[in-house]
Structures are given as structure tokens and as C-alpha cells.
Fold:
Amino acid sequence: MSTTNALLQHETTIRLGFFFGVFLVMAGLEIIRPRRELHTSKLRRWGSNLGITLLNTVTLRLLFPAAAVGVAMFAQVHELGLFNTVALPGPLVVMLSVVILDLTIYCQHVLMHKIPILWRLHRMHHVDLDFDVTTGARFHPVEIILSMLIKFIAILLLGAPALAVLIFEVVLNATAMFNHSNVRLNLGLDKVLRLLVVTPDMHRVHHSVIRRETDSNFGFNLPWWDRLFGTYRPQPEAGHTAMRIGLEDIRSERLCVNLLGMLKLPFLRA
Structure:
């Protein structure tokens, strides 16, 4: 059995291992080196944020048992997509697939902010009154399903190999927890890391109550797209410790912290 086949066979174990590993590391660093003081009950927030994460995981497994890796394998068997019809070196195909899939997620994120009906779904992610590692997995189930369908289309069009999709999924999940963490990084280290990955200070700007800051720094993994398309904002106007997190017009804990309220939010009058 090849290394690639072994990795794909243990996809669930690999993804769960990285999830819990990165989560525990970032949660520990939040205690040791916090960037900001948290203002909402951590127990309540974590209960709701992790609850929505579990609900999303179960929902995706029920609706799409094969998940994104299964779609990639289907495309390969049926020779669908660009990279299944163009002869390129395997490592280059994997690298290009990961980068293009990341660009797809960036574009999806921008659309979530620009199209009103999609913003109604996505704002559940933004109404979190604090910003920490659990915010990175806090998305409405309908948005998660829509995001997965968009990912399926991108994989089929690209003909992205299953290994690339697995790498992308693991890295995206890990970086989402990293860049949503309430961790204080050395400013010099942050400056260097921003060349390669979205850092917590970079993405925190995106969770500001100021709309022009909310509509910036859309990247989850690679930081290049924001600079390329003019959506990069280096720092919040109020500074990281003084900035307000969330949305100015939705501050009720019933909608921002309570799990049932979070699920109802997209269907309430704007």
C-alpha cells in the first residue's frame, strides 16, 4: 500500500488528530499568553461554539459520507477536471490544487459578506462577543453545507488529487483555529508569519464592529489574496486590546452566545 493510499485510508483519524492537537495547543497558549481580556462567560461561549462544531460535523457526515476527499477520488476515477486531463508533475499538481482551493475559500468568504442573503448566514460567525480558538469553527450549519458544495464544485473543476484535498482540509482547519486564537505573538514574529499565513492579529481585524474593518482580511489560510485584491488592513483603528469584537447591531447574549439563538439568527428579521 502506498503512503498516499495509507493517508487517505486514515483520513478521519488524521483530521481528528490535527484538530484536537492544534485546539489543545492554541487553547493552552491562550491561557499562557492571552492577547485580549475576554468579557463573556467562557463556559457558555465554549459550550455553544463547540456544540455548533459538533452539530456541523455530524451534519456533514450524514449528508456527505465521502466528504471532499471522496469527491476528489471520484474525479480521478472518471478523469474529470483540469489536472486529470493535463500532464503535470504530481507534487506541482498537489501544490497548485491547495493554493487554488484556498483562493476559492477566499472568494467564497468575500461573497458571504457582499451578498445579503449569504451575509445573513455568515453573520452568526461574526456575532461572537469574544474572539478565541473556538470562534474558528463557529459557522451556521447551512453555511457549512453551502461551503462544502462550493468545495465539491471546485474539486471537480480542478480535478484536484485526493491527497491535495486532504492536505488542504487539514491545513485550513488548523489555520482557522490558529488565526482565531486569543494568543499574543511577538510583533516581529507576527510580521514574518504574515508573509506565509494569516496570523491572529491579522484576522482579528476582520472581527471588528467597524464595518470597513469587518470587510477586510478575508483570508483564512494564505495571506496573499487580501494584499493582491486590496482587502488587506494591517491593524484595527482602535488597537487590538481596545477594539470591540462582534457586530454593532447584534449584542444580545441570547443571539450571540445561546446555541438555539445562534441557529435562529439567519432567519430573524435583519
